[in-house]
Amino acid sequence: MEPKNSLFDTAVVGGQRLRNRIVLPPLTRSRADDDGVPTPLMEEYYRQRAGAGLVISEGTVIAPQATAYTRVPGLYSAEQVAAWRPVVEAAKREGAVVYAQLWHVGRQSHSSVQPDGLPPNGPSPIAITGYQYRSANGRIPYETPRELTTADIAEIVQAYGTAARNAVSAGFDGVELHAANGYLIDQFLNDGSNCRTDLYGGSLENRTRFLREVITELARHLPMDRIGVRLSPSSDWMDAHDSDKRTLYSTVVRQLNDFRIGYLHLVEPEIAGSTTVDRPADSVPTAELAALFDGVVIVTGGHDQASAERLLADGTADLVGFGRLFISNPDLPRRFQTQAPLEPLRPTGIYGGGPEGYTDYPSLAASGA
Length: 369
What we know:
alpha/beta
């Protein structure tokens, strides 16, 4: 019988050895400046959490049009690249491997934050319903997006490539493509948001084309095994509806095998965006999709140490991400290893602000433990 993996075993991703199988997953915290430039506060935040074997940055937008909210970082300007370098280096000095998550929100944006003041773009002119946009002046309805032309799509693919090149320049070891949570790539995948009749709509082959084109473009700038893809196969967050999620995401995972990417990052069915929900009726078991993938699998969503160890032991996951626990416990791996008490998550400071709720959670070393 093969020995079972544990959280504190090493692992290899993209040819790099991780010191453990604990992942800091992407967590939007909104501490960049108004131009999307990372700040020294972010440097401290990532340094504190670099006990993870793999650190994945918060969602980092690939262009001004790709954002939905202020103070999220980007990777499209020289100033952003320069400011990311000390952030990445701080985490790498502590021993972590560091990836950048590349993000385009698509129709989840709003004209109030678009550079041209017009409604955002999406695969089809279908507005998000059942949710409201969080504007500077309160909650307002989402707008009907402008349908992307094929020329627009080509420009966005190029923007992903530029962001990947910038990530390498900033010192990141690899990139994770955000194809989850009802954002732009997910909007192309799901037939509830994609009613196109061209090469990017209709059949599964067409709806997955944008994802495949982006991966191909990313691979022009870094090795294929330094590219990860994040999916939320069961989530209907922000109207991410599909008539057959099992077939859709099984197809996507099989296509990812053809690329031989570095890892597949799966979000558990009980997670919708940043919230915990009941498992949807049409949810696709994580273990089912993980078994289809030929490479490294990361699983994130509501896990504690015990449930994570079970995922590793039964072979569902190779690495496990911890979001909320990592926010309130910057030295989470050490706390797991020593069975130390865990700090609870505070409601203040999750999105935006200063050190409070961001870098002021205590470590065991600071408390003398």
